[in-house]
Amino acid sequence: SQQGEEDPQALSIQEGENATMNCSYKTSINNLQWYRQNSGRGLVHLILIRSNEREKHSGRLRVTLDTSKKSSSLLITASRAADTASYFCATGAGNNRKLIWGLGTSLAVNP
Amino acid sequence: NAGVTQTPKFQVLKTGQSMTLQCAQDMNHNSMYWYRQDPGMGLRLIYYSASEGTTDKGEVPNGYNVSRLNKREFSLRLESAAPSQTSVYFCASSTDRGLSEAFFGQGTRLTVV
Fold first, then answer.
1. CB contact under 8 A, A42 and B100
2. What distance in Å separates residue B80's CA from the closest CA in chain A?
């Protein structure tokens, strides 16, 4: 069952622009994680934000978490062609500590 | 430092054939997972192993079996492959299930004809 829903499903921008992707979820969580998947490759972890955190940075990545709205956003600043990939959110939730995945946002950065 | 290694990378099976997908991690992680990824369906958990010696069903376990051979290795077996099992399979591992980042293998692209 999917918990996270990414929005938009697809995003196309020019190199140098910022890209924002959103993730909404349904139940209370312990943490929310963002991953990147290049075409035909495995997923790579980008950032983990815990439920008691509101914002986190890693290089050109900025993640926010609003637990009252059950949503998170991933901002990639000054995008590059190499950022072209699918981006997934995953939530760690519940007593069984399941990691539940969204369907992903496909980002295309045009040179 | 290899991380998570999956074999094979590609496989074509005939309906009814069996095969085992191998996965090994060298990060001393407790938890290991098998996912399948299908277009429009996202990642779906097949089986997981929270620690050495334990395995549990995920969302879509039917038609699969797993073995946590030791702390490093977690294999996925298809006993009688069906076309519906055509998919990309990913193995992953993490320190602590659901609470820490997961590391993924490069995937196995399986086609059942």
1. no
2. 25
